[in-house]
Amino acid sequence: MKKQEMTKERLESYRSCKEEIRELQYKLDHLGEGDSMIGNDTVFDYKTGYPRPQSVVGYDHKREERLRVLYETRIEKLQKECTEIEEWVEAIPDSLTRRIFRMYYIDGIGQNKIAKQVHLAQSKVSEKISKYLQSG
């Protein structure tokens, strides 16, 4: 499968992907706790020779397995996306630009704070980001 082109939108989605991974991992770790997997169904009782509907309550193992597979698949997809973004940022050849991208997109630091750390004006930080994304 061909790698997707890196876009501003993909870079901006990084932190949300990381947060979603944490949320899904929490759900996966606590799957089946409490009564969330308790379900009910109706079966027919033929003891008397005629079908009589009876309610059955129990643990829904099939639902648990479906959710487990769904969560694990989504986590794997999100982790792959995050890894691609991290590798793209780390492959930026210019040290200053790489640091700016890492702080802004990976660490979530604001441009004003980045500007102070790299000794540039905030407008220059913004300009570096825009120019690199347009050239790449």
Fold and architecture overview:
- With 136 residues, the protein is mainly alpha-helical.
- The chain has two domains: 7-82, no CATH class; 92-136, Orthogonal Bundle (Arc Repressor Mutant, subunit A), CATH 1.10.10.
- It is built from six helices and two strands; from the N terminus they run ααββαααα.
- The protein has helices at residues 8-12, 14-29, 61-90, 95-106, 111-118, 122-135, and strands spanning 38-45, 52-59.
Helix content: 55-70%
Identify low-pLDDT runs.
none
Element order: H for helix, E for strand: HHEEHHHH
Average pLDDT rating: 89
Distance between the termini: 20 Å
The total beta strand count reads 2
Q: Strands of the largest sheet, in order across it?
A: 1-2
**Radius of gyration from the alpha-carbon trace, in angstroms:** 25 Å
What overall form do the CA principal axes indicate? rod-shaped
Q: What is the assembly state of the chains in this entry?
A: single chain
Task: Give the biggest sheet.
Answer: 2 strands, antiparallel
Work out the count of structural domains. Answer: 2
* Category by helix and strand content: mainly alpha
What share of residues are in beta strands? 5-15%
Tally of individual helices:
6
